[in-house]
Each structure stands twice: as C-alpha cells, then as structure tokens.
Amino acid sequence: MNMTKPTGVVESNPTGTQTLTRGLAVVQAVATGARDLMDIASAVGTTRSTTHRLASCLVQERYLRFSPITGYVLGPKLIELGFQAREEVSLSVVARPYLESLAEQTNDTIHLAIKDADDVLYLDKISGKKGLEMRSRVGHRMPIATTGVGKALMLGLAEDGWKELYEKRSFANTVDSAKLLKKGSWSEFLAQMQQYAKGDFSFDLEDNEPSIRCVAAPIRDASHTIVAAISVSSTLPYMPHKRMQALIPIVKQAAAAISRELGSYHGQ
User: Given 56, 223, 251, 254, which residue has the most CB atoms within 10 angstroms?
Assistant: First the structure.
C-alpha cells in the first residue's frame, strides 16, 4: 500500500520546537546579563557547541550582536520589533480586562488615566456598583496634583516637579480652586508624596471631590517610565483608612499586570 504523505501536510516537529525554545532562552539569558557562551550555556542548560550554534544563528539574524570586547548583547532586530510592538499596543485595550477584573473584585469605580501637560486625562472609567456617580468621565481633565491617579502619575518626577505641579493646582480653572488651597501646605504634600514614592502607590483623601477617596498605582512601559495610572474610588463610608490600606496591594498588582503587558518586567 502506498503510504506517501499528501503534499502540503507538515508533521509536528518537536526538535524544531525545542530549537525555537532554546533560541528564545538564549535571547532571554543575554537580556539578563549573560555575555559569553559559558554563562549563556549555564543559564539555558545546553552544551557549549549547541549554545554556540544557537547564538551564531541569532547574530546572523540580528537578534544578537557579538564583539570580542563586550561579548553577546541584544541586537538591532529586537529594537525594530520592540518599536513595532509598541506602536501596535493600545493602552486602553490592553488595560481593559484588568480594569474589569478590578471592578468585579472591588465593586468600586475604576479609572485609567494618563498625564497630559499638567493635567490628568481620563482614558477609561468603569462605574461602581454602589449607586454612586463621580464627575469624572472619559476625556475629562483634572489638575494632576489634586487626584490620586494624578499623584501616581507624578511618582516618576523629582521633588522639583512635584512642587511645580502642586503650585499650579491653585491656578486650575475649576469651581473647587479655593477649596484646593485649603488642603494642606506644600510641606504636607511633599511628605505625602515621599511616602507614596516609597510604596509605589498614592491616595486621594478628598482632595478632588468632597467625600471621595481613592487608591491609585502607576503603570510603566518597557523603559520603566510611568505612562499611565489606575485607581479605585469610592465615597468615604466605603473607603475608611483600613480598607484603603488593604486595597494597596490589589491595585498595585493590577497596575503591575498592565505594565507587564506593555513590556515592563519591573512590576512585582
């Protein structure tokens, strides 16, 4: 009987899959600091000859570069692909499943925002299930230093940057400008920001709206730059200090997950 395989049918190739997996492992080893064949082989678990073959192929395809002085480093092809991937990533689309999960977990209002000049610009909002409605909306702007999500966006700035944005909030064209001036001195604001920077989170303690509190955390991209922030918001009766403290790791975990989607490996 003729057992010839039909044209166009490709069998599964475990050897090819293993080679691909090992090649990716070599790239990852170089990305984490391995510079010579011995270190790469140790990280990947391959022999020196196999490691050399894989690394040479990756150099030829420009995924790695090699020089006698520096050894193996990441190559220009990865830079090209990285920029292409970054252009194809929509922050709102990537973040949405994590925002929905956070909303389901907390039943509170969830925000996603970015820094735009000296303002917070809201990109997404999921209203809470407790019958509350806040004035924030998608496309709405607020002075950055008056909101919890805004303070999270400020965490990557130096103290001079904090002060500049703190001072600008008094000139905000909002009905609450006068109230904002009564929300504490610069020294108090600085002490809060220093605490937030250490913990990588921030609070809104009724700074923006009366009786509204929130817990926020920053989102970072592959360069570890803060590019956005998320927050969980509710009214004072639902946001006592004890609950805000309990929400910190939950909000930070969601922010870290979104950060990883954007290429950041620094989130915990």
Answer: 251
Q: Whole-angstrom Cα distance, residue 109 to residue 125?
A: 7
Beta bridge partners of 233: 109, 214
The per-residue pLDDT for range 145-194, each reduced to its tens digit, is 989 999 999 999 999 999 999 887 755 544 444 444 445 688 889 999 99
- 72-100: buried (b, 16+ CB within 10 Å) or exposed (e) per residue? beebeebeeeeeeeeeeeebeebbeebbe
Span 24-35, average pLDDT: 94
Ramachandran angles phi, psi of 141, nearest 5°: -115, 145
The 10s digit of each residue's pLDDT in 98-156 is 999 999 999 999 999 999 888 999 999 998 887 676 777 888 888 899 899 999 999 99
d(CA 227, CA 255): 11
Contact partners, residue 58, CB within 8 Å, separation at least 6: 23, 26, 27, 64, 75
Residue 15: both structure tokens together: 């050897």
**What Å distances lie between residue 8 and 4, 11, 13, 29, CA to CA?**
12, 10, 15, 36
Instruction: Give me the residues paired with residue 202 across strands.
Output: 216
pLDDT at site 184? 64
Residue ranges of domains in the chain, CATH in brackets? 14-84 (1.10.10.10), 89-261 (3.30.450.40)
Distance CA 75, CA 136 (A): 44
Residue 61 scores a pLDDT above 70:
yes
Cα–Cα dist 24/18, whole Å: 10
**How far, in Å, CA of 210 to CA of 208, rounded?**
7
